[in-house]
Amino acid sequence: MVAELVPGLPIDILGPVRAEVFVVAHDGTQALLTGPDGPQPWHIETSNDEHPLDLVRAMATSTMADIQLVHSTSWRWDRQSVVLSFLVVIAAEAIGAMDRIPIRRADLARSTAHQAPAEIGSNQILEHALRHLAWLAREDEVVAATLSEAWKTELMTYVPSPFQQLEKT
Amino acid sequence: MNYKLACDCGWETEGAETEIVEATQEHGRQLHNMELTFQEALAMAQPLKD
Description:
The complex is a heterodimer. By secondary structure, chain A is α+β, with helices and mostly antiparallel strands. Chain A has one domain (17-155): Nucleoside Triphosphate Pyrophosphohydrolase (Alpha-Beta Complex). Chain A is 25% helix and 25% strand. Chain A is built from 4 helices and 6 strands; from the N terminus they run βββαβββααα. Chain A has helices at residues 52-63, 122-139, 141-146, 149-155, and strands at 17-26, 31-34, 42-45, 67-78, 81-90, 101-102. The model of chain A is unreliable at 165-169 (pLDDT under 50). Chain B has 2 helices and 3 strands.
């Protein structure tokens, strides 16, 4: 017997997604974390009618000057939301009156082959983002042409990490 | 009565009801892409003791 297909309503798959933005700049001496919210992850609510990347770019452009690069770097599950992490590179001159702190190195939060890390700190997310940027600076012509020499020199100290999510258990 | 309202991001505002609600709605819209109603914003506020 062949079951008859009954046309039904499309499954409405929607869920909470947040964007978390790290705004960074390089003043020629050091890499800095800044942002309109201060030197911390900047949280933005996403909407169903706009691509998260377009939304982050639009929000960044409306609140800061001289946006040089917007790139999605990772995602995770946090507080019942999918959190998309973005790196926004601005020119040092665009920091203006925004608070800033030097970026410090951190160990990555490592997952196992089948499980996400139990806890991830924002400095670890930023570390991962900058390692991703280090890889892009080497592999992506647009990114390489966009970043300043100071950035490229800084990123030489970061291990490019496009695919270092897994570690042996 | 005056109120104090703090966002998760660290931003804070103090003032009369209408002032803090309007400031919070503007902050939410500009920095977090959030549209808050008057009541939603007010619900996050704490009354200040005179």
